[in-house]
Structure to design on (133 residues):
C-alpha cells in the first residue's frame, strides 16, 4: 500500500510540474516588447531602437519643426534596428524621430533647448593703508 501511495504522489508531482512548465512557455509568448523607443545616453546623444519590424525595409528620418528633413536613411533590417545619433549640432527647436515600417509610421518628438548660466563673482580688494603720524 505504501508503494502505491508513493507511486501516486510521484505521478502527481510530475503531472503538476509538466502543467507549470507549459504555463511558463505560454507566458513567454505573450511577453510585451516595446517596438520603438529613444533613449538619451549622454547629453545630446540618443539611441534609437526598433524591435520586431513588420517588413524588412525601414525608413528613418529626423525632421525639424518646419518639416525639413535633416536626416534620412532607408535600410534593410531583420529583427532589430539600432542606431546612435549625436544631435549636439542641432539648434534650439522641436525635432521628431520618424520611422516608417511598411504601412506603420511611428515617431518620437523632442525639444532641444540651450540653457545659459551666468555666474557673477565679486572679489574684495584689500589694501593696506598706512597713515603717517
Amino acid at each position: 500500500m505504501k508503494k502505491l501511495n508513493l507511486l501516486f504522489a510521484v505521478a502527481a508531482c510530475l503531472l503538476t510540474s509538466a502543467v507549470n512548465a507549459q504555463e511558463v512557455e505560454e507566458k513567454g509568448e505573450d511577453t510585451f516588447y516595446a517596438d520603438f523607443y529613444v533613449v538619451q545616453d549622454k547629453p545630446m546623444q540618443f539611441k534609437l531602437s526598433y524591435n520586431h519590424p513588420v517588413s524588412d525595409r525601414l525608413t528613418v528620418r529626423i525632421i525639424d519643426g518646419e518639416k525639413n528633413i535633416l536626416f534620412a536613411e532607408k535600410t534593410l533590417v531583420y529583427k532589430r534596428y539600432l542606431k546612435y545619433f549625436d544631435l549636439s549640432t542641432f539648434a534650439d527647436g522641436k525635432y521628431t524621430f520618424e520611422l516608417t515600417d511598411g504601412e506603420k509610421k511611428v515617431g518620437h518628438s523632442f525639444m532641444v533647448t540651450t540653457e545659459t548660466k551666468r555666474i557673477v563673482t565679486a572679489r574684495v580688494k584689500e589694501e593696506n593703508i598706512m597713515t603717517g603720524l
